[in-house]
Design a protein that fits this description.
This protein is α+β, with helices and mostly antiparallel strands. The chain is 25% helix and 33% strand. It starts with a helix and ends in a 5-residue tail after the last strand. The structure holds zinc ion.
């Protein structure tokens, strides 16, 4: 593995740990003010903690990519492998904040296509957060 690949892998691990930590805190409290305060080091300031789903436990990573200062992780849940996507933004080297937490379309499971056509349920969006429903 080259140096950049190793750095990227380290960033992935950092973000996966952050994601598990954030969801763990969500299971401890539903108080929005407390969540905002306790999760400040993990989320961008404008992030709506209401879109986090406390029942989700991170399972297998399906795919991940770093494009510039954005890191995307597609993962299944530990319970039933239902697809979710988390988006992180790098604020400085080795420092990431969650900017989006989204679930996969229940019809196409985030693939955006159903039977060879653009999915009619999500209209090809694939992933969205609970605030969009
Ligand atoms: Zn769909």
């Amino acid at each position: 593995m080259n140096e950049l690949a190793q750095v990227n892998r380290n960033d992935l691990e950092l973000c996966l740990c952050a994601l598990s930590e954030v969801l763990g805190v969500c299971r401890e409290t539903a108080d929005k003010g407390e969540l905002v305060r306790r999760l400040a080091d993990y989320l961008v300031p404008e992030f709506d903690v209401g879109v986090l789903e406390p029942d989700v436990r991170v399972g297998d990573v399906k795919a991940w990519v770093i494009v510039g200062d954005i890191l995307l992780i597609w993962f299944g849940t530990a319970e039933n492998d239902y697809p979710f996507r988390a988006t992180f933004s790098r604020i400085e080297q080795g420092q990431w904040r969650i900017v989006a937490f989204e679930f996969g379309c229940p019809a196409c499971f985030g693939e955006t296509v159903l039977d060879g056509n653009v999915c009619p349920i999500c209209t090809g969006i694939g992933f969205q957060n609970t605030a969009c429903v």
